[in-house]
Write a structure and sequence with these properties.
Strand content: 25-35%
Largest sheet: 5 strands, antiparallel
Mean pLDDT: 95
Number of strands: 14
Distance between the termini: 47 Å
Oligomer: single chain
Helix content: 25-40%
Order of helices and strands: EHEHEEEHHHHHEEEEEEEEEHH
Low-confidence stretches: none
Shape: globular
Number of helices: 9
Bound molecules: flavin-adenine dinucleotide
Length: 252
């Protein structure tokens, strides 16, 4: 199917983008890897696509002593290839490599993935596990949203109307801090059925791809109480993903 008719604009800066996004029916476009299929299926019919992927403020990575600030339009491939610095001792490049296939990774962006808020996606859980902050930009300026509070429900985020994701600030893991990442899916490159993430120093366990926001856990035993809406089989899958992630971390 083809999308409903729409206008396309490529503003030169974030101020221009925010002005355009204030129009009724306007929507940001980054890599188009989730938005285009949704438009083709006519699940969304934006009147205006505001292209944000080349905005200078959404590109590049700024290094600070304790974190790296990634522009929202950094692609999965740039993270996979090490074109941007890595604060996560290899976790982010490892995750990027497992997203879809290269053509999707060349276009799909970190910010687009977070804004889309698919529970089966990789970045929402990883950013929550790393304790990242999402930097939202609106007409009132910037605000900082902890990644673990960013996704409110499937395909629903804490962004306010007219706001865009400007950047993602990811704290640096201490040198030598280990991690484990387990994505359970039917075929390599597919969306996950369950994701388990284990990080050490500080120790954080996270269950992702659980039909809801990524959920921080104290232990694998927490799953039935923290994810009570999952049926028994899905709880078991989350438990397996988490146990494998812990084993991978301990073996690293
Ligand atoms: C075949 C296939 C397989 C895939 N497999 C995986 C997978 O295994 N794991 C995974 O995690 N993902 C997977 N994806 C999704 C992929 O990672 C997308 O790139 C990503 O979800 C969306 O990023 P995008 O930049 O393409 O965003 P777009 O498609 O451009 O936009 C997605 C949504 O975010 C909004 N948006 C975009 N940028 C911003 C911004 N800066 N601020 C606010 N809102 C914004 C748009 O308006 C839209 O609502 C797959 C996609 C495909 C097509």
């Amino acid at each position: 199917m083809k999308p409903a008719a729409f206008e396309h604009a490529a503003p030169a800066d974030t101020r221009g983008a925010l002005t355009l996004l204030a129009q009724p029916g306007a929507k940001p476009l980054s890599g188009g890897q989730s938005l285009s299929p949704m438009m083709n299926l006519r699940l969304v019919r934006p009147a205006l696509l505001v292209d944000v992927k080349r905005l200078p403020d959404l590109r590049g990575a700024l290094e600070a002593a304790d974190h790296i600030r990634f522009g929202a339009a950094i692609t999965h491939a740039e993270i996979e290839d090490g074109a941007v610095p890595d604060p996560s001792n290899g976790l982010m490049p490892h995750v990027a490599h497992g997203i879809a296939y290269r053509a999707v990774r060349n276009r799909g962006t970190l910010g687009g993935s977070l804004a889309h808020a698919d529970p089966a996606a990789d970045w929402p859980g990883v950013m929550a596990a790393l304790g990242a902050n999402i930097i939202a930009l609106g007409s009132q300026g910037e605000r900082r949203i902890p990644a673990e509070a960013f996704i409110l429900a499937p395909f629903t985020t804490a962004l306010k109307p007219g706001e865009i994701i400007l950047a993602v600030e990811v704290p640096r893991l201490p040198a030598g801090a280990r991690w484990g990442y387990c994505k359970i899916n039917r075929k390599i490159g597919e969306f996950a059925k369950a994701i388990g993430i284990a990080i050490e120093r500080p120790r954080r366990l996270l269950a992702g791809a659980v039909e809801g926001p990524p959920t921080l856990l104290e232990s694998v035993d927490d799953i039935p109480t923290r994810l009570p809406w999952l049926d028994a089989a899905a709880q078991r899958l989350s438990g397996i993903a988490l146990q494998r992630a812990i084993a991978m971390m301990e073996a690293a």
